Amino acid sequence: MDNKFKRILTFLISEQPVALSVITIVRLSNLINNLEFLLLITFFSLLPSLSFLSFIRYPWDFKKERRLSFIVNMISFLTGLVVILILKCNKVSIFISLSYNLAGIILGVSNLLGYKASGHATSIAGPATILTAIVGLKGSLLYLLLIPAFYLKITLKDHTIGQFITGILIGMLSTVVIYYFIGGI
């Protein structure tokens, strides 16, 4: 498989489309209202997608996109959390936004300290854990996206197996911590 095609596939299973899918499933399950849906989609999927604009100036420069993505995500996630708390959104919305924020902070700190954990693994494992906590066992089907993500990120030599597993653990454990912190759903 061509590396450019693999890169395109990695974007289809990156944080933004996964967040869009998870938040939409939660909305279709009537666990959040329309305003909460729009807020979550805006701050956890649409605004983070702005990092892809770096490809206009730097085509196929994934290091620049990765750096910009971390910055855009953290600003967007934190702003989203603040808005959700100010508007006193429901517990499900707070759970989702706190989970994304904690995973993002841990992932960012890990990378700043020199250990490159997989953001792709985190952005699948965290939302899969969120979905499992909210809608039950059928939400765990999202974990299956880790299989193609693992194949793509390892064969593209973006991550080692250890970095990918670390990303999975960051996503899962940060979500479990938030779940217990807020007292479940």
Can you walk me through this structure?
This protein has 185 residues and is an all-alpha fold. It contains 9 helices and no strands. α5 (62-86) runs antiparallel to α6 (91-112). The chain is globular and about 45 Å long. It starts with a helix and ends with a helix. This is Phosphatidic acid phosphatase type 2/haloperoxidase domain-containing protein.
Mean pLDDT: 93
| Anisotropy-based shape | globular
Percentage beta strand: under 5%
SSE class: mainly alpha
Described by strand count, sense and barrel closure, the largest sheet is: none
- The run of helices and strands is HHHHHHHHH
Low-confidence stretches: none
Number of helices: 9
- Using the CA coordinates, give the radius of gyration: 16 Å
Task: Using brief descriptors, characterize the structure shown.
mainly alpha, 185 residues, single chain
Brief overview:
This protein has 185 residues and is an all-alpha fold. It has helices at 3-12, 15-28, 34-46, 54-57, 62-86, 91-112, 119-135, 146-155, 161-181.
Q: Which secondary structure elements does this structure contain, and how are they paired or packed?
A:
Layout: H1 3-12, H2 15-28, H3 34-46, H4 54-57, H5 62-86, H6 91-112, H7 119-135, H8 146-155, H9 161-181
Helix pairs in contact: 2-3, 2-7, 3-5, 3-6, 5-6, 6-7, 6-9, 7-8, 7-9
